[in-house]
Amino acid sequence: MTVALSSLRPVHVVGIGLHRYQKPSETTFVELGLVAVRAALSDARLDWRAVESAYVGQATLGIAAGREFLRYLGATGLSIAQVENASASGSTAFRQACLEVASGISDVALAVGVDKAAPVSRASSKAGIPSLTGPAMIPAAVFAMMASAYMHAHDVSAADVARVAVKNHGNASKNPFAHFQRARSLEEVLAEPAIAGCLTRLQCCPIGDGAAAVIVASDDAIRRFELARSRSVRVAASVSTSERLYAQGEWASQELTRDAAARAYEQAGIGPKDLDVVELHDAFSIEEILYTEAMGLCGPGDGARYLQSGGSAIGGECAVSASGGLLAMGHPLGPTGIGQICEITRQLRGEAGERQHPDARWGLAHMVGVGQVCVVHVLREPDRTAP
Amino acid sequence: MSVPAIRQPELVTAPSGETGGVKLRARRCTCGHLFFPSHVYGCERCGRDGASTHGVDLEPRGSLEARATIYQHPKLAAPFLVGRVILDAGLTLAVRLTRGCGDLPLGARVRGALVSEKESEGGATWFDLHFEPDGERT
To answer: Rounded CA gap, A228 and A265, in Å?
Structure first.
């Protein structure tokens, strides 16, 4: 018999930290990672020696990246493991850290994502199975095709899709950790060079350098280290799925999202209308429209209208990508999924400053990775009556 | 007409020995699951190993479900067209499209055709399978 995360020991996010996502730089991954972890320890008011286990989400650095930077916090002998799951590497590292604390094996665990922009090689190219399209089918091509089918089916324009980038670049302009920090008008987004189909440059996420860290802890650890329960965010659901066979006309990433979100709602005992903040895999603008539908934030075919009516704006029904999302906060691979947890935690604590969504109680983080995999977490607001 | 030099003969065959009559080399499992590209690793639907699958050549005909012009590509000369085609045989396929598909409405009929690439490799001309509007050669 299996159990859901919510029926194991409670797991709480107690510390968050980021190194700004940025264009490819001279900064070493060691420095990037250390900045994020030290920020998370400081946020939690926790000593490094309390951390028993570290999961390091990364995709570009090569083997054994974790100890190469964690050693400089003190070589405590903690458990270290690297986690690679394509774009969902960080999300999966976070999940592993949560499961380790929930199971009782550790009281305090770290999930840290760090990466440097670099070419990645895909195992699929070594599977011995040729492809009809060869290297032609870059991610932008796949999502531009999805956009064409969506626009055709729902009478949606290229400008309607581009509004995702306008919202998310606007949100990122208020995020000091974002890769891009400049608000853009619809005209600016549409005037950028086209990459694929209707997707202009600002509708495709930047891949650069960055780091993000999250510390998770048990109730025992919160008591023992006298951590602030009023700033501790409960992890209410953790779901990890991979592609099945889908019917003709269905797109794997949208179906994966539908399935993973439904399972996460069930674990957390909520529905989509309960969500206040969502960070989702908007590597390309069209994805936000497709996934807000797949998550049930709006009805099928209503994604563009939901966006345009302000439903997904900060202060709307549910703030989607308040951080700026992958489109504007950026997508440095390993850090991305953990950066989402940082943003949601900030929002649920009410510490998001200029980009705070009012009365945020429930948050959902979602990443899709090539392969295809999907990882979803649900987080719940802290008990503010607690010390 | 001489026998076309197909760049990926494991994917595409022209049994008649000409650029017409091109077929996709797919595979079917005893459970009925049809898949492309062909391999003998096993069946994604039922998990049977490759010995339970057999080769089947498919007509590359279907309807255009999605399309995109690629304007910038890290490796290939752009622009070019890609698309997703729902084959009559029951497969969904990501494909290259000929320029003639640029204005084709989604849902329109398309068919696979061997297209010779302008660049030559070692002096030889290679043929790739691209999809074109059904009923007219471009």
So the answer is: 27
